[in-house]
Write a structure and sequence with these properties.
It is a single chain. By secondary structure, this protein is α+β, with helices and mostly antiparallel strands. The protein is built from 2 helices and 6 strands; from the N terminus they run βαβββββα. A 6-stranded mixed β-sheet has the order 2-6-5-4-1-3. 18% of the residues are buried.
Length: 98
């Protein structure tokens, strides 16, 4: 299974779309209008008309159903994830050096 082959979508409410556009990165179960089929690791998140809002980690068993990591319409790549991890490590090194 390649987690970067994203075939599943989750549709969110209008109020959830507004929160995402304001910078919030979590979507709770009550704001998911249509769950993806199966239990995919990563889903494409869409609004009611079908516009791509971004990409998120999906958890069917959590109240925090979607955790956004990209608000881009382009699908994520391994390079995006690698870059994010490298940046997170670099930020943490600043704290451990002090």
């Amino acid at each position: 299974m390649d987690p970067f082959t994203i075939e599943s979508q989750a549709q969110i409410t209008k109020s959830a779309v507004r929160r995402i556009r304001r910078g919030h990165l979590w979507i709770y179960a009550g704001d998911v209008e249509r769950e993806p089929e199966g239990n995919p690791a990563i889903v494409q998140v869409i609004d009611e008309p079908g516009n791509i809002i971004g990409y998120a980690f999906y958890s069917a068993n959590s109240q925090i159903r979607l955790r956004f990591f990209s608000r881009d319409s382009a699908p994520p790549t391994p390079e995006l994830i690698r870059t994010r991890i490298d940046l997170a490590i670099a930020r943490r090194r600043k704290f451990s050096a002090e």
